[in-house]
Amino acid sequence: MDFLDFGKLSEMATAYLPNVLGALLTLVIGFWITGRVAHLLRVAMEKNKMEASVVRFLSSLVAVGLKILVLLSVARMFGIETTSFVAIFTALAFAVGTALQGGLAHFASGVLILVFKPYKVGDLVTIGGGQTGTVKEIQVFNTVLQTLDNKHIIIPNAVVTSNIITNISGQGIIGVEFSFPISYQTDIDKAREVILSVAKNCPYILDEPGYGVVVAQWANDSVVLASRPFCKSGDYWNTFFYMNEEVKKAFDKAGLSIPFRQMDIHLHQAG
Prior knowledge:
The chain is α+β, with helices and mostly antiparallel strands. Helices cover 51% and strands 17% of the residues.
């Protein structure tokens, strides 16, 4: 065999050189486009104020996927059959997806929360089937709430998105529901005047929108007066506790009675 057969080398070079150059060009341009797409995706997600960890994960995931497609295209240019590679990748992706089914569901739900923003850090919410607290963190797989008694509740994001989400403070101001029972013998107008006076002196209640006191119910043992003053979202609990305490003190000072459950027993003498 003549290793110095330059004719054959020239023929092989002529045959394969276009493929080699095309493959190198495809590889360089493909990787450059991949980098640009990942960068634009990262910028778009950062503008939408998505969680930094989610931005990094998604941009890297897209970059790796596009690079794999570029490498498969280069392999086909050399005549390498890529069907078997695609089958292997598909089987691997299916196996990983099955193993991480729950985690992927929580991750996808976390992305939806960060994209559509039903709540944000600092909002007072009721989520996850009735858990109420202030949102401290929105993680990739979980949402962390802090309750009024300083407990941390960690709720999987898939549980959040599969339940009703109530954003209590997301509008900036919030109405605080109050019910004040009075006895049937108590003057309703006087009780209303006392409640409005306490609300006027409350440092957290806003003048607008306005509020009033109405008769909400005739209960078995009381007449229930209701009011819904508004305050800033961050003052919700301060308003709630202030009004409940100060209205009770004002009722006592004004001599207004608050009913309690009672039972009248009538005795009949036999015979």
